[in-house]
């Protein structure tokens, strides 16, 4: 059981493409049609196994397991042990780190969206105040309430 720095760094690096692939397939527009088809099939299939299979393509967490498995087969990455146990530990560690990245990314997107909405709201308030000031610039400076000259009577 020899855990090297290369394995640890590999864990955090390999989780990045896993998170990217899982996020892209489950949320991005490029895979919208197949995802919608899978979502519909996951609700309408008669067999439980078929419903669960199609559901995997609509759930970010579930799909990340399959992406992790594909990356483990592709890279033969092992964690802690050189035998099959290394694959099992690597599998769950990669899923954990990849989903941490996915949650972090979702949180950042939420904060960015919230900040944008706050900025838009502030800009609308400023525009409203500016238009009110432009529509009646003399109303704020007038004290007598009318435009008549005092000495015209």
Q: Strand tally, please?
A: 0
- Give the rounded overall mean pLDDT: 85
Biggest pleated sheet: none
Specify the structural class: mainly alpha
The global form is flat
What's the alpha carbon Rg, rounded to whole Å?
29 Å
**What is the helix tally?**
5
Straight-line N-to-C gap? 104 Å
Which residues sit in consecutive blocks of at least 5 with pLDDT less than 50? none
Helical content (DSSP H or I, runs of 4+):
over 70%
Which band does the percent of strand residues land in?
Answer: under 5%
User: What is the helix/strand order?
Assistant: HHHHH
Structure description:
The chain is flat. The protein has five helices and no strands. The longest helix has 52 residues, at 84-135. It is 73% helix and 0% strand. It has a domain at 5-108. The mean pLDDT is 85. The chain is mostly helical. The protein has helices at 5-27, 32-44, 48-55, 60-75, 84-135.
Write the layout of secondary structure elements.
Blueprint: H1 5-27, H2 32-44, H3 48-55, H4 60-75, H5 84-135
Throw out a few tags for this protein.
mainly alpha
Summarize the structure.
This protein is mainly alpha-helical and 153 residues long. Helices cover 73% and strands 0% of the residues.
């Amino acid at each position: 059981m020899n855990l090297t720095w290369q394995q640890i760094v590999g864990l955090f690096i390999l989780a990045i493409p896993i998170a990217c692939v899982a996020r892209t397939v489950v949320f991005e527009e490029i895979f919208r049609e197949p995802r919608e088809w899978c979502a519909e099939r996951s609700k309408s299939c008669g067999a439980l196994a078929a419903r669960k299979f199609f559901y995997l393509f609509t759930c970010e967490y579930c799909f990340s397991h399959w992406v992790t498995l594909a990356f483990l087969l592709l890279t033969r990455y092992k964690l802690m042990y050189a035998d099959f146990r290394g694959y099992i530990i690597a599998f769950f560690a990669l899923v954990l780190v990849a989903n941490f990245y996915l949650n972090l990314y979702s949180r950042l997107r939420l904060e960015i969206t919230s900040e944008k909405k706050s900025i838009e709201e502030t800009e609308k308030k400023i525009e409203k105040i500016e238009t009110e000031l432009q529509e009646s610039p003399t109303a704020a400076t007038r004290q007598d309430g009318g435009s008549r000259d005092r000495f015209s009577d």
